[in-house]
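Board notes, transcribed. Complex of a protein with iron/sulfur cluster.
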Amino acid sequence: MLDTIQLLEQTNFPSIRRGLLNTLQVNLGYLCNQSCVHCHVSASPYRTEMMSRELIDLIPKVLSAQEIKILDLTGGAPEMHQDFRYLVQMARQEGVKVIDRCNLTILSEPGYESLAEFLAIHEVEIVASLPCYSLENVDKQRGKGTFDKSISGLKTLNALGYGVAGSNLTLNLVYNPQGASLPPNQVTLEQDYKRELFENFGIEFNQLFTLANMPIQRFGSVLLSKGQFHPYMQLLKDSFSSDNLAGVMCLNTVSVDWLGNLYDCDFNQQLSMAISDPHIKHLRDLLTRNMDGAAIRVADHCYGCTAGQGSSCGGALTEASKSGLKLTS
Ligand code: SF4
Ligand code: SF4
């Protein structure tokens, strides 16, 4: 795989600083039942990296010490971690909202038949990848058979109340482009998704999040091999919108890898760009120190968050709150 980090480090991206921490995003490991082309963590069924039980037990203590309101679980397929359910239960007991970044296909894997019901019982918010509402595009990006399994997963979730009007169970979907282009308008695309999924499959969901592809890891390597890296970077830079700086997720989220190391975001984690503060490097450091006001480590891939309508784990940023933004001189 071709590495893009050397091409990203020299940057003129604006300096930004952290606001109040409200989300702990934890990558439980790289094991996944899929191996998608665009995956920025290069997850697959053959990865063995998994967070230890010792670190899992540290998470509720950090949530409490920092008064963090949201625990955002990623992977790989986070549900494949042996302590996934244990962690969810502990966080919910603390009154913390839990987000599961679910690939949908895991819901129909052998051994995971009770997963959807578990998520519903614990009112876990689901953010699920569905890169298109057509079989052809989804199977091209995520592998043959993925679309049918995803639809089946969505139906299972709807039957439990997820995404259904009047229910408190939230089901949000994620779209990312097939290639080196920016996502279309999130509002318009959400309307298309809602119409197509309901008319063709009777499926409902809450919101669609559109995400830009980051020029790193597997997708970055594909860009390099096709000679599209520099044109794509130029597109991201030409589409820079300073309004989006107020909503980039690193302002109030910290990302944790499976070893407990801290990063300003999941993308920096995959680029091994550790947090700049030498005193806050590991999950355990958050038991005694806080990160408010700390400088965020930026590089050229950050233009992926600020291009056009903006991009974050919660989708487009154009309506994002301006609170928490601190630009350094
Ligand atoms: S489902 Fe998600 S984590 Fe798994 S390979 Fe695909 S993009 Fe990566
Ligand atoms: S890539 Fe990460 S550090 Fe850069 S702006 Fe986006 S969230 Fe912040």
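Residues 320-329 have pLDDT under 50 and may be disordered. The first strand starts at residue 16 and ends at 17.
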